[in-house]
């Protein structure tokens, strides 16, 4: 009996092992998105009277944030309800359907397969409540108003019919800025693209928005010559405010603001102040060098603050004192980074006195020849320039004696010495025929789209951009309509479009010692 039980167990175990080996070991991973194989009622149905429809797929699916990722045109006041049933998606309509209207449901990444999560990028279901179905279309693209390049983030795009205050069409842009409206009625439309964070299809005062003063006609095909081109920007609604005010050393205060200061004034004990180039940071020096507490009234456009400042705790004081121990004078050029004629010095406090015999000793190391070159202090007292002519590839030793300068406290500068080897740079000259009718801001950009140099041009003329390292560059023009020397963003509620950006159609390759000349006719497109 025992032998029979053992034999039966062996048979069961062998059978189990065989059964286990019989399972498939797997195959290629499923990467295909679900495919629609039918719908009830059929897609593109006419005389639709129902309250729901069903879309069937070739596999089980799940919904991904359907309330936000399913777009309905025309928009419905009562949003539909979405659910899965079997291998499909059930849509229940909560709103009353308009007569003789074509409804389009766009499933934008709202459906994925159940097992692998492969997303269906887009699917459209359409029906008409009357005998006729609208078949017209419109298309366009959204550009970054600052760079002139396609907008790469997804946006909501709406269209308004003549006289409407609410959008009658809605779609989304793709990652190349393109968008299209399908199954729309004939007529003309005003198109608006917006970064609709709250998904309410309304233009908020803080949202980035792009719109056009033109109206676009729906057509039976997409004609590239009549596509909408919208320029997106966010309105600058920031208000001036104080960001920081503190002692950075005894007698030295730094004040920072959100926006550039226009015409700042300070009231308090005797002090001197300077603004940085961006005009958003003010450095203040108390004439009492040991000052450790003060009250300052700072006023500017949109700003009126009373600053009650005190030098901080011992730990912070130690750190601040270490910062304050920086040399009064330092070089802003060293190694191979110096420009031909840009030997600059910087000071940590305003210079009040300059020695009568102040000059810099410039030695050409290959033959030890020495020149004594004048030093020119700028009006801020924080920068100085050594006037000399250097040659590329040559090595120089620059020496400055001590006590050439003294700051507002009477502290003299120490001696300074540094070595440099100026590099060769290229020169780009642009001959610009300005037909825009406005002042231009011409910007030279590197391969990372960073502005490396810019100049303002009133009318037509010749601009020279010197000291450009060997590299590839692009050029763009800002049509500076308000003549403030910078690009101005758009404002939908003020009906102000962002200032136009025009791109030069060449990429410019500049090499060392090259002088590159280009001619550019800058004109606005006819509206």
List the helices and strands and how they pair.
Blueprint: H1 2-21, E1 36-40, E2 52-57, E3 61-63, H2 66-69, E4 70-73, E5 81-84, E6 88-92, E7 102-113, E8 119-128, E9 136-144, E10 156-161, E11 169-172, E12 178-184, E13 188-194, E14 209-211, E15 216-217, E16 228-232, E17 242-249, E18 252-257, E19 265-267, E20 271-275, E21 281-286, E22 293-300, E23 303-310, H3 314-324, E24 329-331, E25 343-347, E26 351-354, E27 359-364, E28 369-377, E29 383-386, E30 396-400, E31 405-407, E32 416-420, E33 426-434, E34 439-445, E35 451-457, E36 461-468, E37 471-480, E38 501-503, E39 508-510, E40 515-522
Parallel strand pairs: 9-16, 33-40
Antiparallel strand pairs: 1-2, 2-6, 3-7, 4-7, 5-6, 7-8, 9-12, 10-11, 10-13, 13-14, 13-15, 17-18, 18-21, 19-22, 20-21, 22-23, 24-25, 25-29, 26-31, 27-28, 27-30, 28-29, 30-32, 33-36, 34-35, 34-37, 37-38, 37-39
